[in-house]
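@channel sequence for tomorrow's demo:
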Amino acid sequence: MYVVSNITNEYYANKGIKPEVYIPADYDLIKHKEEISIVKFLSKEFNIYIELLTEINEDKIKTPDFRFNDKYWEIKNVSSANSIDKRVKIAIQQIIKNVGGVVLVIDRSNMDMATIKEIVFHRIDRTKIEKIDIIFIKNEKIIEIDRYEKNQ
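structure tokens (generated this afternoon):
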């Protein structure tokens, strides 16, 4: 079972850090326009350095979207209960080697936050990860940031 904490204020506590986004030379700017926009928003919003990662690594394996604080992160757009469950599962698989978190863009969802969070909780509860942060974004605004930590 996991304990869920709202840690939104922790992310806003980064004072004096210059927001910056590193974009690799081989990064497809057209294909990943939305990821770039979200990462730039997060960098500016939280005054953080973010490194975008090339989509496929040298071993032809799909990589996470970005690295922040030396942890892997994945961005997922979701709309329905099914898409939330599936995309969070896929995101966790992509970041499992060095779990940071998942950015859930819920612009297309008509569900209330309690329902969305419940679906996320049940998906995370079926994993073996110890800790993960979930950033909920709607209409280019941070709704909430939750940390899910396995109860020891």
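heads up for whoever presents: Helices lie at 8-11, 33-46, 81-95, 113-125.
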